[in-house]
């Protein structure tokens, strides 16, 4: 279409029609408009991603232009793909133009936890399916012999994923050569410095060549991020992408509810929620500590509800396998312990930072420093100082050094398609709550967060179910409401008539009574022993025989408590009116005895095993071969 010339012989601007203007202004960015390699777009189409998220649409063009970036976006907004897409695209373009050596480490991705390193590696594998021969990525956090890691690094992979301590170790030994690096990414930048990596990061930064592109991804913009920016962005100030205002205007996908409950009623509610299917889909249950994980697992087993446990005590391979199978739909319920939230734990970890290796200790979550909630953070830290080490059970003090600091459940791990986050025990701070509920309502999907809290007057009213973390639930809940209101979110009371559960109370008492401290300790020891065997000795076998993986289920029954078959079924008289229609099976049946086998046959088999009822010597044998003239039993 030709445009008219004005008096100065310059083409006049075309005034679009109303419909055309609407299309131009309202059009949303697509992956095709980001000018990514066709092979990346193929993988995106296969994964059924319709359009880029806000952080991806803003980050990818800037990263492709080579600029340093500091991006802040909420958990679950797609930050990992926001830096992976431009890095993979750039490597493919350079290899196609042959401007660099065919084998050279082009990108170094630094992450705080081993789980996140494994997740990023898996994501790279997914989106390089159609260019797998051109892109090689190696994860340095695997538990393997150093000679194997050295051999993998000497092959010069294109992308290296590591924690800062591992990367610094291999750079110092001159195996990981940073000379050809073009991209450095620090994922979860606001957490990296909280793990005791200061010296490692300084060592890495000093070894980087000039002109390296730096991308920092974070859920918050705090003082830790500023120090990393000055350390790695040597060429100048990075482009800052703060998407908090844009995210606040988006329609809320997360519904948040709270329930005021006594300590023992928590167990009654979780039993009713799972047995009556009040919440459907995959659920993550967050609890205060590791013992609490197994107590709830054993409690639910009494009613035939299967679940698996996730905590820092388990081997890394076992944790990764659990998360992977949960994402694939093998399990519906994960009971997770965020160990850093144990009251008094933060102080102990800070004291042991200088003496423990970052690779062999547990996560250290720093709860101070975000500008918008500075006053609330000060109050939280004061409360922790008041509580001190006196609140922490002696067993936790003894075991603090044996757990894994590079472990985090509430942040980093990509739990997919989670319908609900159930805070069985309220966290110790509003920030921890925010990170916990970020496990659901991800990537535009809807989700629900349900939290139990114990009022002050009901604390320590039921000794066997009491945990010290619940002492300040009301105070923590006020901070949670304040923070969520600042972000435009609402925390409502869950409308549920608990009087309809009165008939279930006698079952609750039976189940809680059977879950003793000894049973919890036995279940914890048994699972740890079994997971260690599965994680080490059988690793190679199951890699070669994947069909045998069914034997590695993590939600098997512990059998640490006496089985009570009548608890597995819900009698009809206990159900509220209209409740029968909601339950698909096991309604109105109370199993008293299993009659699937013949009683006489079963008794014969039992006696046979004990040695009774054996056939006499020579009976039933060939009479011609067993003929004995001297008589039976004589030789």
Q: What would the principal axes of the Cα set say about the shape?
A: globular
Mean pLDDT: 77
Helix content: 25-40%
The number of strands is: 14
> Unreliable runs, pLDDT <50, ≥5 residues?
10-26, 341-380, 383-402, 585-593
Please identify, by name, the CATH architecture of the largest domain. 3-Layer(aba) Sandwich
Main sheet properties:
7 strands, parallel
What can you see in these coordinates?
There is one protein chain. The chain is α/β, with parallel strands linked by helices and 635 residues long. It has three domains: 33-248, Rossmann fold (3-Layer(aba) Sandwich); 251-343 and 404-561, P-loop containing nucleotide triphosphate hydrolases (Rossmann fold, 3-Layer(aba) Sandwich); 569-613, no CATH class. The chain contains 23 helices and 14 strands. The chain has helices spanning 18-26, 38-46, 54-64, 79-97, 114-127, 146-154, 164-172, 189-192, 198-207, 223-232, 244-249, 263-275, 290-301, 316-327, 345-352, 374-387, 394-399, 430-437, 473-486, 505-514, 517-535, 539-544, 599-610; strands at 69-72, 107-110, 137-139, 159-162, 183-186, 213-218, 239-242, 254-260, 282-287, 308-310, 333-337, 418-423, 447-453, 491-493. The strands form two sheets. A seven-stranded parallel β-sheet has the order 3-4-2-5-6-1-7, with helices on both faces. It has a seven-stranded parallel β-sheet with strand order 10-11-9-12-13-8-14, sandwiched between helices. The longest helix has 19 residues, at 79-97. The radius of gyration is 30 Å and the shape is globular. It starts with 17 loop residues before the first helix and ends in a 25-residue tail after the last helix.
